[in-house]
Amino acid sequence: MSTYQAVPLGSAEGGPKPTVFTIHVEKIRLIAYCAFWGFVIFAFIVSKIFTWPNMSCIRDGKEMSGMDCADLIAVFGTNNPCIYWDYEPSTQLTALIYPIFELSLVLYLVMSHFQIKNDMLNGIFPADKETLMTVLFWLKLVLVAWFRMIFVCKVTDDDLTIGSLTIGAVTAHTIGFLGLQVGLVFIAFENVIYLTYRKQSFWCFSRETTVKLAYLYLVLLTTFTVIKMFWTIRALSIGIPNTLIPFPVSEFTNKAWLLFAAVLPIFFALEQMKKDPPMVVTLVNTDVRK
């Protein structure tokens, strides 16, 4: 039996007084994605000032310095934003502000889940999708939380040994990011399904066109994610050059994925803030505390 239920605002005479919060779910999503770019920019600045000036290496007989010495470029042939927090002191300093992103995104997932449940209760969203939405909720929650492993498993660590299983340092470091990629696809999938039943229109487009564009966005994001993950896993397995997917295709896919996964959702949140009414959350103890 579900313990989720609707309760009336206010309180009975002499009963406990409720605490009422007004929350705009899409504003939380906006904060979360801005927090992501916030900690990326912070890590870049810290690395630029404190890390890269002190890095030097020799690769293929050539002296290199700064970000060109990053371990990821040796594995994948190119760098990505992870290099900004891969080395001290950026790892430790970035880890201090990273929770702003994680906690705000987790809060968005929780509030969005209950927003959907309330719409089910009011006949706006089909109740037969409850199991699907619940499974997606827990998968997203776990995958987003596991992203923090980028700070636990560092590329500079020794290989991770679990019994007879040995996992390379770069592989262990990358697994958390692969999980986040899947989690962001799940978030997009849920948002598109929700948009379909809410029948909302975005910007100058009609409702029908908005839904079609939403599904196109989901297909492209999923495609870029699959290519990106496949190329990453293959590079970790056999190294570079990765001839199955040409390097220029991989470079384009990385940039396109970043656009679809971390930039466009900011504009989606800004637009949906204009459409969705705020959600009222009521908290009340079952009895007055003595």
Would you give an account of this structure?
By secondary structure, the chain is mainly alpha-helical. The chain contains eight helices and six strands; from the N terminus they run βαββααααββαααβ. The strands form three sheets. The chain has a two-stranded antiparallel ribbon with strand order 1-6. Helix 1 crosses helix 8 (247-275). The longest helix has 32 residues, at 90-121. The chain is globular.
Q: How is this fold's topology laid out?
A:
Layout: E1 19-23, H1 25-51, E2 56-59, E3 62-65, H2 71-76, H3 90-121, H4 130-146, H5 149-152, E4 160-162, E5 165-167, H6 169-198, H7 207-238, H8 247-275, E6 279-283
Antiparallel strand pairs: 1-6, 2-3, 4-5
Helix pairs in contact: 1-3, 1-8, 3-4, 4-6, 6-7, 7-8
List keywords for this structure.
two-stranded antiparallel ribbon; single chain; 290 residues; mainly alpha
Shape: globular
Strand order of the largest sheet: 1-6
**How many H/I helical runs?**
8
- End-to-end separation in angstroms reads 30 Å
Strand content: 5-15%
Task: Please give the share of residues in helix.
Answer: 55-70%
- SS elements, strand count: 6
Main sheet characteristics = 2 strands, antiparallel
- Averaged pLDDT, please? 87
Structural class by SSE content: mainly alpha
H/E series: EHEEHHHHEEHHHE
Low-pLDDT sequence parts: none
Radius of gyration: 22 Å
